[in-house]
Amino acid sequence: EKETGKQEATTLKVGCIGPTTGPYANYGLSVQHGAEVAFAEINAAGGINGKQVEFSMQDSQGDPEAAVSAYGKLLDWGMEVSLGTVLSGEMASVVQASAQDDMFMISGSASADAALEASDNAFRICFYDSYQGIAAGDYVAKNFSGQKVAVFYQSDNDYSVGLYKSFVDQCKKNGVEIVEEAVEAAKENAALNGISNCEFIAGDVLKVIDDMPVKPDCIVLDPPRDGIHPKALPKIINFGVDYILYIACKPKSLARDLPAFMAHGYKPIRMCTVDQFPSTQHFESLCLLRREKA
User: In angstroms, rounded to a whole number, what is the distance separating the alpha carbons of residues 156 and 205?
Assistant: First the structure.
């Protein structure tokens, strides 16, 4: 350094990309605030190898193309380490765009299995989608063996679709899917695994529920963060199944929907939480409901 006249940097620039505005802002803001608190504590304790951390959060508005643009802005800023993106769809786009930059990335919430495939320098510290689907499939297979299972999920949400697909592969029970091609893939998976006691139905959940050819023995619910669609809730209850497994990524939605189930004779018998996104306020809540006999 004395020979070249260069001075060693006294700061470490860390960037992150996520929605801080728009419909998914609650995710991005949680990550931003958590990172700011963490880096403030790290800096107060002397920094990282003596370097103070500078943190920049770029808004993606939940759009993968905007996320790539945000990544470019962080590079221009001088980012040295990336916390990746908050959402999986954004992560896949940014990882692909950054593959030639040799940028170290580590995400605390990009859970889609394929989100990191384009780079050997991208990592995550959260559970991945198929892990959750496999765990749910194992639970159903163990506790409801030989029974019919219907799955209701949000077909336009990558997270929900990822869980659905891994659940179908693992458990091979009834699935409700909007995209016809995915249903055909599920049928193929069932055939490859020698599973003959499952049926896959394509269609909008609100319409398919009314046309279900058989009554399920249990139902696995994995709704979006806002909970079960108000019009779907009474239809689900009217099936009168003995068991309902509710998987909630927002506890308030579970708390909101539970009274409706309990008013119709359902009682929570087991509950647990999964800290899927460390260092954020988000966690999964699982609640097993059993219908009490009159």
Answer: 12
- Decide: 64 and 90 in contact? Cβ < 8 Å: yes
d(CA 224, CA 155): 10
Question: What's the mean per-residue pLDDT of the chain?
Answer: 82
Residues annotated as part of the active site: 249
Give how far the C-alpha of residue 159 lies from the chain's centroid of Cα atoms, to the nearest Å.
4
HEC secondary structure over the chain: CCCCCCCCCCEEEEEEEECCCCCCHHHHHHHHHHHHHHHHHHHHCCCECCEEEEEEEEECCCCHHHHHHHHHHHHHHCCCEEEEECCHHHHHHHHHHCCCCCCCEEECCCCCHHHHCCCCCEEECCCCHHHHHHHHHHHHHHHCCCCCEEEEECCCCHHHHHHHHHHHHHHCCCEEECCHHHHHHHHHHHHHCCCCCCCEEECCHHHHHHHCCCCCCEEEEECCCCCCCCCHHHHHHHCCCCEEEEEECCHHHHHHHHHHHHCCCEEEEEEEEECCCCCCCCCEEEEEEEECCC
Could you give the CA distance from residue 13 to residue 55 in angstroms, rounded to a whole number?
Answer: 6
- Per-residue model confidence as pLDDT tens digits over 182-234: 566 778 888 888 888 777 766 666 667 777 767 778 888 877 777 787 888 89
Sign of CA dihedral 24, 29, 32, 37: negative
| Helices 88-97, 64-77: inter-axial angle, 10-degree rounding | 50
pLDDT at 173: 45
CA 100, 101, 103, 105: dihedral to nearest 10 degrees? Answer: -50
Q: Which residues 6+ apart lie within 8 Å of 255 measured at CB? A: none
Asked if residues 55 and 79 have their Cβ atoms less than 8 Å apart, the reply is no
Provide the whole-model pTM: 0.54
244 forms beta bridges with 219, 289
> What pLDDT, on a 0 to 100 scale, did the predictor assign at position 114?
79
